[in-house]
Structures
1.
Amino acid sequence: MSDPTPGNMPSVELARRAYHIRKHALRMGAVQGQGYVGQALGVADVLAVAYFRALSYRPNEPEWEGRDRFLLSIGHYAIALYAALIEAGIIPFEERDTYGSDDSRLPMSGMASYTPGMEISGGSLGQGLGIAVGMALGLKRKGSDRFVYNLLSDGELGEGSTWEAALSAPHWKLDNLIALVDFNNQQADGPSQEVLSAPDLQAKFDAFGWFAQRVDGNDIEAVIAAFDAARELTDAKPRIIIFDTLMGKGVPFLEQREKTHFIRVDEEEWDLALKAVDDGWVAAGGVVNADI
């Protein structure tokens, strides 16, 4: 079976994939009437570029040894990753409506024992980057040229174990490790920078020995350029991309809510949210896919 990595998928197609990911996430949120949908809407562009330009994987063989590994450290973002895995064909489309239900393979928090394509059981924040360091080191020692990606949050950067991992990765020259930070400046207790400020993150990681970039995570072209630069770097150092994203991206009434860390919305608002995503896609020159 050939490597299905799209490689140079154009930005317009990646934007279409991000549009689909947003709709999948909203459809799943509507099943339970709640969920971490704001994060899914915000990080959809990053996931679209990851799964349809950067990652090597086989949809029908999620444990293929030659795959790149994508670790979801922030387990409550599971709805976002499920949406990407559905769009990528790793999770069957028809399972979307089982989200959060009894006996579903799509629990509200990501669990590797349940879900194809879920590499780790995240959720105890601060552990993902350490696991990614170990996995990247293991792949290197096996002679593999595969990458390990680790999606973590800005709030997670307040965990001491994250910084222990950040110190160890350059020590081992883990140039096969690419960390991705979703910086939406929100967590359960309020704005991340008010809970624990973390100024000059790019400079901090650069000082630790990482190749660090910071870009607009809702600008497809910027996200593409950052992923490409991280993958193509020849220096023997780990790479990190800090993505500034907007919670609820694509749904104006969610973008403007003061708190969208975990949302409960009225029943009729789900249809309004889906319409907003469709309208935004049409305004960008796209065609609505009524089957999504």
Note: The chain has one domain: 11-283.
2.
Amino acid sequence: MKRILYFTFSIFSILTVFTSCWWQSEGNSTKITGNYYLHWVDDKADQSILRSSGDGKSGFIQVPETVYAVGYNDSYIIAKQHPNLEKEIEERLFNNFQGEDYLLTNPSDTIYLSKDDKVYEKNGKWYHTINGWNPPDSLKPYRGKTLYHIIDINNEGQESYVLDNEEEFLNKREELGIPKDLDFTIIDKELE
């Protein structure tokens, strides 16, 4: 009886994973221009710019989540993006396993750990046990920072720039000769 239940549960689990992956591959795509699409799957906060040779359902992520404003002409795509700090912090917290526990590379990340986690010092380095974490919604998208992107679509995105602030963005636009009338025409107010 236990084997039958285990087998049934295993088949059910495999089918659940398979069907969820199958549905996820579809996503939502809106064509920007040429081979470029605004794309997201389950969560609109995952909206990115995708370079696709097909129908915008798969391809190369040119600008990662969360893209909230886009403008374009025949030569360039410009975009505004809020970074995903949740992914960055998760990598720092859980990608450095040291035998028994995880090395803490940034002690300020401990505010995101479970209250049951143990943080300790050993040989001059800080470590933590893992009992999970509860990242706040404010980390994805992190609206405290805006990154600006310029993609040269004549070179299939091979020439692209990520700029840390509006001043750098405006200077790079001028340097590249991008017309001043190219503005952000697709703006998602929910993600802004």
Note: The helical segments are 2-24, 85-94, 166-176.
3.
Amino acid sequence: MPLTLKAPVSHARSLLFVPATKPERFAKALESGADCIVIDLEDAVAEGSKDSAREQLAQHLPQLTPVQLARTAIRMNAVGTPWHEADIALLRDWVGQGVAVMCPKSEDAGALWTVAQKLGESARIVALIESLAGLDAADALAREPQVVRLAFGHLDFQLDLGMRATAEEPELAFARNALVAASRRARLPAPIDGVTTDTGNAQRLAADARRARAFGFGGKLCIHPAQVAGVNEALGHTGAEQAWARRVLEEAAKHGGEAFSLDGRMVDLPVIRAAEAIVAGTQT
């Protein structure tokens, strides 16, 4: 079942892209089982259709319920593009209603700070890192106050570096490690991994999702509803893990912040935080 957290994007496992030019798909995407949807004003929209896509989005966002809005992120056009400021003007009215914003081509913390100032203090931003410059700035981007999560645009990243990664993508391990580490240092939730382009290959999707989990990612971008269930399964938590996490939090409440022992294992603040993340990621 989809998450119903106050800020679902912070702990979403599956984030399903939907072109802004296809508003008839918004509701279906929200019903797909995806924790969040990402309505795309950037790569999925041709340059000549940017303005009409934004207009369609403005017309259809009011049709979503508050819960649906909280499960919605908008990928805007990047800073410096001709459409960026108009995207800001539209989104400024919606961030206060729970809509998150994905900033593509995130490379500069100062530019991201400016975006946040323009959007307002309610804005929750996912910084999408798609270049070496973005990776170099990952720590600074993650520490921006309104950034709630990092995401990895691994396809554009390969283009930026002239890479041709093989199927298992060991060539990208250094980047994935860096994003997980930057998220941890900034005390952000685990980052979001990139898409699997072969939408008809369930085995490839499962392998990619398992790899994301192994590296420490907590979410994955999807480009087809058929990918959602596999991502949720791979990046979710087992029943035993959920039960353990709830026991930890119940016992922690009894001990008033002091370390204690549970099943022969010492439980201190890092263990409690891990349990909180599991419970947050499994609320329905």
Note: Residues 1-6 have pLDDT under 50 and may be disordered.
4.
Amino acid sequence: MAHHYGELASFTAALRGEPDAAPVLYLHGMAGTGKTTLLHRFADEARRTGRAAVRVSGACLRPSRRDFARAVRHAADVPDAVLLVDDVDRAAGLETWLREGFLPGVSHRAVTVLAGRRAPHPMWTADPGWASCARVRRLGRATREEAHRIMDAHAVPPAPRPRVLAFCAGNVLALHLASADAARGPVDWRPSAGVTAALLARFVGTSPSARCLTALRMCALAGTVTEDLLRTELGPHAAEMFRRLRERSFTSREPAGLAIDPVVAHVVVEEALRHDRDGFLALHARLDAHLRHRPFWGAESRGVVPERLR
């Protein structure tokens, strides 16, 4: 939790009612960055100070204001309650209603923490009223030292640690799963089928379509993708898939196109090599042939190109 020190400090300052503290904290980041764990810690801190903590999840609510109001009625009635909303972006319209309808009527002594995978609506920072009382924090990667502490907790021997570090790319969830796996593994450890399947489901979903997997594999191999590059494999479906990729919390906009987070790329490659090796090698060959004319195209500019493919 050391890499969440700033978020913990902001939350405890709000609990104490410090003058410059913001009563609303919005956390966002891709799966595995520790949002839910941090909300558990916040709930413990709130109870330790004698404040009521109300926790709800947007993933468990129907997109209904009535359902949400029923779930958080205690937070509205108790002046100094702490409201913790996980997966706020999973319930359609919930974030907007919270900002425009519910939170303005909550006691000024209440503390609210919202957490979701996607970045919040710009109005949280663009509107002067919200900008003064809400803080937006993006949860990032664990540092190398924090990663080693996680591996220490799982008793990972020295030899496989470099591979675990490279595969996980600082993602906390991946570090825990991979460390538990590597603690029992050989020197030349590679993530097990169980680890990669669990992470793919968490990052991408339980049943990604063939088009989605193709787009993700292209991202992993090319480093960045554009709609034009996706069109070489997906044809008329490229525009829709590019839009969907752009909306995912694990992608980022780069000057050359869309890129996916390294840990997602690593998971996608391992899954492809395990379940569709020939198809993945063929895709790699087609991309390599198509992109040879791109300036600086080479191993250093590619995405995740495993050594056994070079």
Note: Residues 296-301 have pLDDT under 50 and may be disordered.
